[in-house]
Amino acid sequence: MTTTSPQVAPIFVILPDAQEVRGRLHARRQVKDGWLYQVGILVWQNGTNGLGEPAEQRVWVSPAHARPVPGVSYEHVPTHRLSPTDTPPQSRPPAWTLQYLPHRPGHPGATLLHVIGCTPSDRTLTREEALAALGQPRTAACIECDAARSLTPQQRQTDQDRQTQQKRDDESQQDTNPSETVL
To answer: What angle do CA 74, 75, 80 make, to 5 degrees?
Structure first.
């Protein structure tokens, strides 16, 4: 049996041919346009004795190629975020995901709301869907990714200001290139 360190968690990995295998999540890394996950899967390699022996192959994948294992917490996995100076201005509004935590003896199930990328998920939510989900019983916002702050009126105003500035930039670019026709 393979043991996992306290910084590694099981995860489902979707292979290029759409097979889904169980692997291990070693790290999460925020990049300019989302998140990447360092996953490892066991494969066979030629051993020194000429026989096959198991070896872990690690690779960084996008959220589309990783899916959480129900009931597993990923809060202990090393997470590398962009610093505020590295974070580029977002051209699209944030999105959110839900993580369903199963019922355990003595503890009812719960739901955690995350900013996209914090926990692998196959479905994203709009702001309205995220707010509606957060209003449900036994639903809370993740403190790791600060999902609650991303839904506050101050953040909403920042998003609106960013969209307004983007629209102005787009219009001024059209004005500077009158020979180009936008269809």
So the answer is: 95
pLDDT digits (tens, 9 = 90+) for 26-61: 999 888 878 889 999 998 888 778 888 888 888 889
Q: Tell me which of 78-82, 109-113, 161-165 is least confident.
A: 161-165
- State whether the Cα torsion 65-69-70-74 is positive or negative: negative
Which residue in 67, 46, 54 sits closest to 2, CA to CA? 54
Q: Pick left, alpha or beta for residue 106 (phi over 0 → left; psi -120 to 50 → alpha; otherwise beta).
A: left
Exposed (0-12), middle (13-18) or buried (19+): which is 135, by Cβ within 10 Å?
A: exposed
pLDDT, tens digit, for every residue of 109-158?
A: 888 888 887 877 767 888 888 899 888 888 888 887 878 888 876 444 44
Do 25 and 74 touch, CB atoms closer than 8 A? yes
Amino acid at 79: T
Query: What percent of the residues of the chain are helix, what percent strand, and what percent coil, each to the nearest 5?
Result: 20, 35, 45
